[in-house]
Amino acid sequence: MRSIFSFTLSEMREYLVEHGCAKFAADQVYQWLYKHHEIDIDKWTNISKKIKEHFRENISFKLPEVVFHIQSTDGTRKFLLELDDGNTVETVAIPAQGRLTQCISSQVGCAMGCLFCNTGTMGFIRHLTVAEVVGQYMAVTKWVRENGDDPEIRISNLVYMGQGEPLHNFDNMLQATKVFMEEKGLAIGGRKITLSTSGLVPQIKKLNDFPAVNLAVSLHSTFDEKRSQLMPVNDKWGLTKLFEALNSLELREFRFITYEYLLIADFNDRPEDIAGLCRLLDTKSSKINLIPYNEFPGSPYKRPDDEKIEWFKNQLLKKGHVCTTRASKGSDIMAACGQLKSKEDKKNRGDESL
User: Fold this and answer.
1) The one catalytic residue among 21, 82, 90, 117
2) Are 350 and 100 within 8 A, CB to CB?
């Protein structure tokens, strides 16, 4: 049975016409789902009985189940969602002034095997479907509206930085992005969506066909030998191939490319690393986002001290680069960058629920 959350608007229009229904009803269905966040079709007052009966018999409205959630001292909430097949993924809601950002997962596990990432220890299990990607947004929105102080709260920003490599699941992430951006639905603008990649060169070359969203590239070193130590993907597509692909992109609304740079103590926080960034990145089309390393149990690396982080940032600013340091949110609940991992033992979930 196909999920209602798997349809783009154009697909919904085609589907209804194929089943003898009015094309315009697709716009109304989208508004009920994504404007009003109403999945009880009995409350869809302007939808025909014929469509409702067809949906009841042929279309699933089931969302991923919130198995548990945990809240950080900084307000960040991490959710464990269970999918139809029993697999689980984590997604994170991050509050900030004037916005609420959700960190979306694209896969169960990840095939990239990056040594700094807790998800990478899982290995790759499977891609998430379009409905499961969109379902993360819908399930978390439903939960925070029902359990928070604001029944109309809206997740305003999305970052594809949860579990998995988004470009490894290219087609499903593309379709889900169309759902997120549809003006008659959620209407999340492209400037409020960020796609992150570890550097899958063949997929990067296809990004000109992707909706115009922000692009973030996990760089982490400007030296092939060191980058390969952190990211096995660099063995196949090294820095030369990566930047050839990036330079082939039409920036359009991207405006610039953000380069994520994980700062690891005594590994990539040296003067020669600053020189490498200045050599490789253009000051006009690049933004550097420094991410102090978030440790996890068994991780082989350490976070630099605050003084070293500030020094590294200031050196780049002096060279004319746009450079920011990402505030670590949710690290106390293992919800920060690189810390997500599906829970496999359901018996232990109660220890982390509130």
Assistant:
1) 90
2) no
